[in-house]
Amino acid sequence: MLELKLKNRTFEAENIEVGLLSGICLIVGTMIGSGIFISPKSVLLYSGSVGPCLLIWTACGVLSTLGALCYAELGTMITKSGGEYPYLMEAFGSIVAYLYSWTTVIVLKPSSFAIITLSFAEYTATPFYPGCTPPTVIIKCLAIASLLIIVAINCISVKLASYVQNFFTAAKLVIILVIVVAGIVLLAQGKTQNLSNAFDGSSMSFGAIGLAFYNGLWAYDGWNQLNFITEELRNPYRNLPLAIIIGIPLVTVCYVLVNIAYFTVLTPSELLVSPAVAVTFGDRVLYPLSWIVPLFVAFSTFGAANGSCFTAGRLAFVSGREGHMVKILSYVSLRRYTPSPALIFNGILSLFYIIPADINSLINYFSFAQWAFYGLTALSVIVMRFTRKELHRPVRVPIVIAALIVVVSCYLVLAPIIDQPELEYLYCTIFIFGGLILYYPFVYLKPRWARRIMRPITMHLQLFMEVVPPEDCEPEDPMKSVKF
C-alpha cells in the first residue's frame, strides 16, 4: 500500500514497498501508450521499407535499455525525486537544472500530454468516419475534452487517478496481446508477402534516420519513469536494474511483433495512408469484432494520458520547492491533497499545444528537446565519475554505454536539423536558452519587488484554489493520509 503524507514540503512515502514485479509493471505500463499505435506510419515513412523499419524498432528498444541503465546508476547514486533534475543539478549546477525544469515543465510535459490526447481523439473518432479521415476540428475537440476530464480526475483524488491508471493499463495489455496473437496466426497461415524482400527500395538519408528514430523512440518513452520512485523501490540496488533489463526488452519484443502483425495484412503503402493503423488492422482481421481494437486502443491512450498527467506535477513540485519555478506550483489542495496547481498549469499549457499542431510535428518538437536532456543526463554519468568519485555507486554501468548514449543523443538532436532545417527546431532552441533571461533576475537575484508582486498573486490563487504549502496540509483523522 502506497501512503503519501503531505509534510515538510515534500511527499514523504511511508511503508512503501514497490517490488520487482511492480517496477516492471510501471515500466511496461508507462511505455506502452499511444506511440505503438501512431508511430508505425512515421517510422516506415522515414525508413523507406519494411526491413529498416523493423530494425529501427529493435534498435530503439536497445537504445532505451542502455539509456535506462545509465539512469539506474544515477538513481541508485542520487536518491532524490525529480527525475533528471537532481542529476543535472549535481553534475552541472543550478543553471542547467533550471533550464531542464524550465523546458520540461513548460514544453516537454504538456506537449507529451497533448500528443497522447490527440492520439486518443483520433482513435475514438475514426470508427465514426469509415473510409475517411475524421475532421481535424472533431479530433481536437475530443482531445481537449479528454484532457479536461483527465486533469479533473487527477485534481479530485489521487486514489481515483490510480484506479483509472490500473484499469487502463490492463486494457492496453489486452489489445497488445490480441494484435500479437492475430499476427502469429496470420504468419502461421503464410501471410508473409509483405515481409519478403523487406529491404527492397530502402533509401534513407542522414536526417531521415534521425526522424525515424524520433518517432520510434517516442513509442518507447517512459523508460526513465522508475527513477521517479527510487526511494520507494524495495531493494533498489537490485530491483531497479533488474526491472529495466526485464521490462524494456519485453516491450521491445511486443513492439516488433505488433509491427510484424501489421505487415501481415497491410502493404507498406496501405499502412502509410491508414488514418489509424491498429483500427485498419482490426477491420481486416477481427471483423465483426473489429470494434474492440479502437475501443481498447482508446483505453490504452487514455490511460497513457492519465499517467502523463499523474506524473507531471512532481517535477513542478520539486522545482517550486528549489525556487526554480513559482512557489504556487508546489502547493497542494487543502481538501483533496492533490498537487492541483501544477496539474492545472500543465493542462492549460497542453491546450495550447493541441490547438495549432498535429501529432507528427509535436513528436518532432518533443523529441528534439527531450533527447538533448537525455544526452546531458548520460553525460552527467561520465562527469560525476571524475568530479564525484566519493559517491557510492551500487549500480555501475560501463562508461562506454554512457558515451554511446551521449553520441546517439547528439545525432538525434543534430541530424534532422542538418538534413531538413525547420523553424520549429530554432524556436525550441531559443525557448530553452531563453529561460536564462528569467533565471538571472528572478532565480539568482530574487529581487524584493518580484516577491512583493508575487505575494498577493499567490495569496489570491491560494484562496481561489484552496491550496497551501505541503507542510501546512496535514490530513486529520480518520483521513490521516492519502493511500492508493
Topology diagram in text:
Blueprint: E1 3-7, E2 10-14, H1 20-31, H2 35-47, H3 50-77, H4 84-92, H5 94-125, H6 136-156, H7 158-188, H8 206-220, H9 236-265, H10 268-273, H11 277-285, H12 292-322, E3 332-333, H13 340-354, H14 359-387, H15 399-419, H16 423-444, H17 448-465, E4 467-468, E5 482-483
Antiparallel strand pairs: 1-2, 1-5, 3-4
Helix pairs in contact: 1-9, 2-3, 2-8, 3-8, 3-9, 3-14, 4-5, 4-14, 5-6, 5-12, 5-13, 5-14, 5-16, 6-12, 6-13, 7-9, 7-12, 8-14, 8-15, 11-12, 12-13, 14-15, 14-16
Transmembrane segments: 20-39, 54-74, 95-117, 137-158, 170-189, 201-220, 240-265, 291-317, 337-356, 368-387, 399-418, 424-445
Protein name: b(0,+)-type amino acid transporter 1
Subcellular location: Apical cell membrane
Structure description:
This is b(0,+)-type amino acid transporter 1. The chain is mainly alpha-helical and 484 residues long. It has one domain (3-483): Amino acid/polyamine transporter I (Up-down Bundle). The protein has 17 helices and 5 strands. A 3-stranded antiparallel beta sheet has the order 2-1-5. Strand 1 and strand 2 (10-14) form a beta hairpin. The termini are close together.
Name the helix and strand elements from N-terminus to C-terminus, one letter apiece.
EEHHHHHHHHHHHHEHHHHHEE
Instruction: Work out the helicity level.
Output: over 70%
Biggest sheet record? 3 strands, antiparallel
CATH class value: Mainly Alpha
Overall body shape: globular
What's the count of strands? 5
CATH topology: Amino acid/polyamine transporter I
Q: Radius of gyration over alpha carbons?
A: 22 Å
SS summary, helix count: 17
Can you give the mean pLDDT? 81
Q: How far apart, in Å, are the first and last alpha carbons? A: 6 Å
